């Protein structure tokens, strides 16, 4: 409301037909003018000397011919004035309002007072009066006026309705006394109403739309919110007279805005991840303290396990487990069951009814003497102790399936749960249920992915005392834990070891499935003892075939096998050399004890799946004490995407190869993988252990039957030197049968080699024939055909290895335990000899 600042404006608030504002004309009983005020001269244009003694009708003749002004002398006029039209001295028509009053008679006769004013001014004044009356008695806006001392002077009807009792009880009180214990919902203003009005009174700056929350005197049990506006009142000279405060109860609007804000917060917060437990935790964070003082979310056992809830479980509270609970107090005094434990609700409880009827249960006023609470003494005791007075249970349903319930309680908030709270919680529960169901399904897929990972990657690298290994496997999809990289350590014939690292293009389940196929194929091809270049050629054919099958099955762009890279090498501890071939894969790193890390020049073959191009292999000498590192490109491209920088950092990480392998792997991870890798990363670090020349014996044998006896004699002599006499019988039998087969079915020359490994004895007979022997079951009447059968019975394992000149038939026998312990190397200090899951980091000897 604007306060006038001029005297004329202030006068405009008065009645135009009262006081000095009206044009005043004095008339005698005949209607002659005896007095003419300056206002009359200003209104009608006639001066006093022109009209004194004249008839008023002659001076200001009526324009409508309705009897003139003189007729008012003989008729009573209403208090608000009668409208007539007069003619101004200039000739223009003028609509005026007139009031005629008879004054006490004098000796000269009757005297009349005629008050005239512009009809338009009178209408404006009447409208102002109506407005002031409506503001005072009819307006829904509470209007309170405070004096210069900021104490109540006046209040309209709306403001008085907020104050119980007569208004006289509150006149002279301050605003803080009228609204005790309130809170201003704005950080830029003082928290006290009196302080805010003091600032307005001092500065004259208006405060608008300020929200204020408190419990009014007329309704102390419920919290209300008002929108306040304060402005200064001042006189015509600008001197402050007080402060006018306008207030509107916006409690319902505030609650609606708070509910909307809570829903918006829930839409952002709930479901931010696909972790089931995190999702229910987010629901609890929204509900407390936004809606309740305590909430507990209980889910069916199947839901927490990621399984589809069974129909019979939906109505059985005993199948529920506490997923999460949250309270306004950190010590959680309301909690009876810790998270993860089974929750038991008695029959007839709100949770039991909610699950059975799949509908919310609202106990606005909780009856602590309910039968279900009498059955649950511990829960009942806590409710009584805390004073829990209101209780609400809503089901968590998605896709028509009930997955659990959310329980809300109030004890610090004195307001009971109302219908609008139920609507809000149902909306939040519906949104959360969809996110919980999505998280449940993801949990199931995640567990499937982890199962696939565990089945595809090696659970434990095979132990082999000729090579010590350690590795890391870090999929880019950390949530699923599955990628397309793989590694393996493969025991081969004649104490050799196969080392392989591969990378399937892409991530996720398809890449992992392809990786599993390729890994299986490598195992099969390695058992055939193929050279590295031949093995990659066969692997390339397999990838091409798989890609063709995928294209035929999904011709419209469904992702199939798109290619892979691979590095495969074979280390021979006898020759201390390794043969490598690679298909689009980075070369291995060879770390020496006394010189810089070397990246051997292995011919770069095409990636698997290209087809039609050959692969080449190269031999690398591996000195004693050095280590080999095989890795995928994700390791070296993690450093700003620059492979050259990655190779430099890899060289730094591999320095000092005499350290424990686990320490070296940890250094590689810290140096090269400072951030979360964008691509899958797998690397394998191997420390070969060469066999000394004293543990290898080789002889060339004549291609004639007498060579069998010679081979037995040489074998016995060497076993005696090695103190392995207890293996003489079985070894002599195996050597005899292998040499006999070579003489009968192969071509010369032939050779015999005995290798004393760290836990086994290897017998190998080579010839110049590519014909592979096979074991068969001989008939009773047959004299031969039992040699390989006997070899298989006495040997730990046996097989055929093809070479460029022919083949080698080999067999392994386990060393006696005492001899094996003597041959086994001591562990590197600080390096464990046992393994764990593929995704873990550990060092293990390879058998």
Q: How would you describe this structure to a colleague?
A:
- By secondary structure, the chain is of the alpha+beta class.
- Helices cover 32% and strands 27% of the residues.
- It has 24 helices and 32 strands.
- The strands form 6 sheets. Strands 7-6-11-10-9-8 form a 6-stranded antiparallel sheet, with helices on both faces. Strands 18, 19, 20, 21, 23 and 24 form a 6-stranded mixed sheet that branches.
- Strand 18 (483-491) and strand 19 (497-507) form a beta hairpin.
- Helix 22 (728-745) packs antiparallel against helix 23 (787-794).
- The longest helix is centred in the middle third of the chain and has 38 residues, at 419-456.
- The chain is elongated, with a radius of gyration of 51 Å.
- It starts with 6 loop residues before the first helix and ends with a strand.
- Mean pLDDT is 82; it is low at 1-13, 778-784 and 826-847.
Topology:
Blueprint: H1 7-11, E1 23-28, E2 33-36, H2 38-44, H3 48-51, H4 56-59, E3 82-87, E4 93-106, E5 109-118, H5 119-137, E6 142-146, E7 152-155, H6 157-161, H7 175-178, E8 183-184, H8 193-203, E9 207-214, E10 224-234, E11 240-249, H9 251-269, H10 276-287, E12 294-300, H11 301-304, E13 320-327, H12 350-357, E14 361-363, H13 371-375, H14 377-386, E15 390-398, E16 401-410, H15 419-456, E17 464-474, E18 483-491, E19 497-507, H16 508-527, H17 532-553, E20 564-572, E21 577-583, E22 589-591, E23 604-605, E24 617-621, E25 627-631, H18 633-637, H19 643-653, H20 661-672, E26 681-688, E27 696-701, H21 706-721, H22 728-745, E28 750-756, E29 760-767, H23 787-794, E30 797-802, E31 807-814, H24 817-823, E32 842-846
Parallel strand pairs: 21-23
Antiparallel strand pairs: 1-2, 1-5, 3-4, 4-5, 6-7, 6-11, 8-9, 9-10, 10-11, 12-13, 12-16, 14-15, 15-16, 17-26, 17-32, 18-19, 19-20, 20-21, 21-24, 22-25, 25-26, 27-28, 28-29, 29-31, 30-31
Helix pairs in contact: 9-15, 10-15, 15-16, 16-17, 19-20, 21-22, 22-23
């Amino acid at each position: 409301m604007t306060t006038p600042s001029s005297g004329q404006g202030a006068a405009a608030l008065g009645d135009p037909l009262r006081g000095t504002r009206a044009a005043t004309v004095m008339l005698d009983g005949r209607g002659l003018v005896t007095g003419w005020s300056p206002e009359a001269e200003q209104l009608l244009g006639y001066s006093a000397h022109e009209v004194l003694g004249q008839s008023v009708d002659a001076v200001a003749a009526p324009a409508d011919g309705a009897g003139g002004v003189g007729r008012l002398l003989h008729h009573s006029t209403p208090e608000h004035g009668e409208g007539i039209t007069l003619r101004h001295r200039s000739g223009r028509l003028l609509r005026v309002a007139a009031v005629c009053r008879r004054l006490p008679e004098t000796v000269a006769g009757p005297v009349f007072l005629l008050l005239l004013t512009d009809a338009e001014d009178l209408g404006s004044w009447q409208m102002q009066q109506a407005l002031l009356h409506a503001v005072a008695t009819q307006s829904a806006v509470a209007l309170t006026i405070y004096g210069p001392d900021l104490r109540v002077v006046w209040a309209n009807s709306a403001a008085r309705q907020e104050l119980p009792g007569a208004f006289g009880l509150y006149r002279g009180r301050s605003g803080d006394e009228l609204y005790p214990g309130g809170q201003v919902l704005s950080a830029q203003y003082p928290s006290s109403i009196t302080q805010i009005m003091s600032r307005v009174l001092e500065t004259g700056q208006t405060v608008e739309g300020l929200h204020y929350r408190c419990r009014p005197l007329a309704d102390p049990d419920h919290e209300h919110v008002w929108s306040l506006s304060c402005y200064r009142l001042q006189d015509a000279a600008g001197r402050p007279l007080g402060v006018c405060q306008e207030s509107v109860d916006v409690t319902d609007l505030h609650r609606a805005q708070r509910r909307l804000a809570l829903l918006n917060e829930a839409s952002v917060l709930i479901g931010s991840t696909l972790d089931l437990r995190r999702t229910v935790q987010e629901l609890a964070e929204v509900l407390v303290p936004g809606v309740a003082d305590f909430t507990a979310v209980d889910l069916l056992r199947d839901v927490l396990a990621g399984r589809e809830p069974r129909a019979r479980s939906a109505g059985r509270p005993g199948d529920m487990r506490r997923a999460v609970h949250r309270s306004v107090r950190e010590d959680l005094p309301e909690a009876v069951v810790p998270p993860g434990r089974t929750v038991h609700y008695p029959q007839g409880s709100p949770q039991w009814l909610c699950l059975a009827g799949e509908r919310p249960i609202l106990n606005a006023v909780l009856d602590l003497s309910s039968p279900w609470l009498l059955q649950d003494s511990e829960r009942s005791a806590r409710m009584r102790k805390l004073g829990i007075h209101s209780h609400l249970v809503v089901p968590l349903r998605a896709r028509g399936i009930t997955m659990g319930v959310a329980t809300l309680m109030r004890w610090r908030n004195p307001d009971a749960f109302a219908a609008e709270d139920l609507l809000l919680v149902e909306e939040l529960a519906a949104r959360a249920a969809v996110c919980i169901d999505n998280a449940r399904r993801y949990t199931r897929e995640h567990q499937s992915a982890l199962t696939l990972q565990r089945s595809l990657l090696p659970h434990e690298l095979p132990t082999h005392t000729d090579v010590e290994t350690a590795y890391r496997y870090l999929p880019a999809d950390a949530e699923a834990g599955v990628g397309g990289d793989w590694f393996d350590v493969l025991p081969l014939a004649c104490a050799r070891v196969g080392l392989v690292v591969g990378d399937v293009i892409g991530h996720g389940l398809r890449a992992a499935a392809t990786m599993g196929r390729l890994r299986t194929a490598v195992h099969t091809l390695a058992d055939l003892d193929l050279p590295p270049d031949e093995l990659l050629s066969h692997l390339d054919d397999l990838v091409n075939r798989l890609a063709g099958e995928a294209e035929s099955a999904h011709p419209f762009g469904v992702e199939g096998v798109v290619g892979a890279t691979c590095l495969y090498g074979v280390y021979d501890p006898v020759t201390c050399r390794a043969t490598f071939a690679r298909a689009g894969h980075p070369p291995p790193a060879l770390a020496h004890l006394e010189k810089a890390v070397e990246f051997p020049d292995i011919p770069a073959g095409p990636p698997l799946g290209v087809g039609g191009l050959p692969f080449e292999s190269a031999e690398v000498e591996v000195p004693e004490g050095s280590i080999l590192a095989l890795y995928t490109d994700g390791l070296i491209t993690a450093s700003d995407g620059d492979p050259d920088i990655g190779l430099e950092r890899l060289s730094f990480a591999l320095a000092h190869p005499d350290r424990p392998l686990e320490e070296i792997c940890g250094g590689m991870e810290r140096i090269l993988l400072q951030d979360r890798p964008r691509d899958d990363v797998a690397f394998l670090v191997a420390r070969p252990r060469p066999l000394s020349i004293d543990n290898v014996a080789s002889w060339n044998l004549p291609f004639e039957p007498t060579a069998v006896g010679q081979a037995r004699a040489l074998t016995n002599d060497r076993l005696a030197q090695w103190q392995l006499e207890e293996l003489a019988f079985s070894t002599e039998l195996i050597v005899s049968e292998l040499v006999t087969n070579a003489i009968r079915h192969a071509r010369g020359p032939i050779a015999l080699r005995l290798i004393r490994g760290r836990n086994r004895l290897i017998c190998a007979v080579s010839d110049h024939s590519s014909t592979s022997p096979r074991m068969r079951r001989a008939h009773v009447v047959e004299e031969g055909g039992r040699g390989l059968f006997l070899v298989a019975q006495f040997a730990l394992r046996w097989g055929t290895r093809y070479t460029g000149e022919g083949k080698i038939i080999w067999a392994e026998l386990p060393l006696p335990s005492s001899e094996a312990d003597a041959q086994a190397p001591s562990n590197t200090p600080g390096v464990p000899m046992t393994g764990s899951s593929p995704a873990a980091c550990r060092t293990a000897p390879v058998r």
